[in-house]
Each structure stands twice: as structure tokens, then as C-alpha cells.
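Action item from last meeting closed. Structure (169 res):
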């Protein structure tokens, strides 16, 4: 489609350029902390799911309590969808299989992430659902590792309560 990708010659130039551009956009000069979106992008790119979850918790904590719909699993689901969509990741929600719908699938160049969300239940229950219903089977012909992620949200804490991961090579 006539698209081009520009890159930086090394990490130092990239970091310097990002700091300069972001500080200009924020009307600030000088060194600043790396914006959360960049940290999240890099953590996901590096498959550092612990960091991805921690940063996602930070995103949830920035939502004012009076607009946070903590009692609806779909609210958390939509936030996760938006985060990864705006990170430029290929994410699908409510993906149909012959044994039900899985909550979300994120396909990166290196992995397929199969996500099941629960609200006020457990990550074990979410992960068990992925396995019991064979959601990963839909992607059996794809050679990328499948990362099964069971994520439980707490309506009281208004964030990720616990999560479990299993990798299928």
C-alpha cells in the first residue's frame, strides 16, 4: 500500500528522539520518564507479560472512580481491547470457535495470545475455560507459540486481581 517504515540507527538515538518529541508535545523541556504507552509497547514486544500486567494495572488506576464501571466484565474487556488496538497490535474480541467464543486473541509476529477474562472469579477458572473448550485448537496450523492467558479482574480493587499463563509450543 505504499507504506514505509522508518527506524532509528540505535537505541540511544531512539530514546533521545522520543524524549525530545514527547517533551515538545507536553510543552516541557528536559529529561522525562518514558511514557507508559512506550513502556507497555516495549514490554509486549519483549513478551514481558509481568510488566504488561503491571502497566495495565496502572492504566486502570488512572481512570476516575466515578466513571469506572467496576461491576461489568465487558468494561475491563473493552479497556484491554483499546489498549492493544492503540498499541498497533492485531486484536480480536469475542472470537467464535466451534465450542464457544473466546474473549480476545492478540496476534503478534512471534506469538498468539489467547485471553479469557473473568470478573470476581479466578485466573484458574479463566485458564481452565481456554483449555477445556480447546480455544487454542483454532490456531493449530500456525507455528507461533500460543500463550494462554487467564485474567481475573476484581470489581472491588478495580484492576487485575490475578492472572495465569501457559505456553503451548
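Sequence:
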Amino acid at each position: 500500500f505504499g507504506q514505509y517504515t522508518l527506524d532509528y540507527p540505535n537505541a540511544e538515538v531512539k530514546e533521545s528522539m522520543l524524549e525530545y518529541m514527547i517533551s515538545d508535545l507536553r510543552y516541557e523541556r528536559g529529561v522525562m520518564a518514558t511514557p507508559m504507552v512506550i513502556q507497555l509497547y516495549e514490554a509486549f514486544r519483549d513478551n514481558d507479560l509481568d510488566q504488561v500486567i503491571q502497566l495495565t494495572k496502572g492504566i486502570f488506576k488512572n481512570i476516575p472512580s466515578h466513571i469506572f464501571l467496576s461491576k461489568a466484565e465487558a468494561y475491563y474487556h473493552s479497556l484491554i481491547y483499546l489498549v492493544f488496538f492503540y498499541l498497533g497490535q492485531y486484536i480480536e474480541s469475542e472470537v467464535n470457535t466451534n465450542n464457544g467464543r473466546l474473549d480476545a486473541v492478540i496476534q503478534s509476529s512471534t506469538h498468539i495470545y489467547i485471553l479469557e477474562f473473568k470478573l470476581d472469579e479466578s485466573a484458574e477458572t479463566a485458564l481452565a475455560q481456554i483449555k477445556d473448550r480447546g480455544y487454542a485448537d483454532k490456531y493449530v496450523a500456525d507455528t507461533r507459540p500460543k500463550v494462554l492467558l487467564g485474567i481475573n479482574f476484581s470489581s472491588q480493587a478495580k484492576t487485575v486481581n490475578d492472572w495465569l499463563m501457559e505456553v503451548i509450543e
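Note appended to the action item: Residues 11-25 form the longest helix (15 residues).
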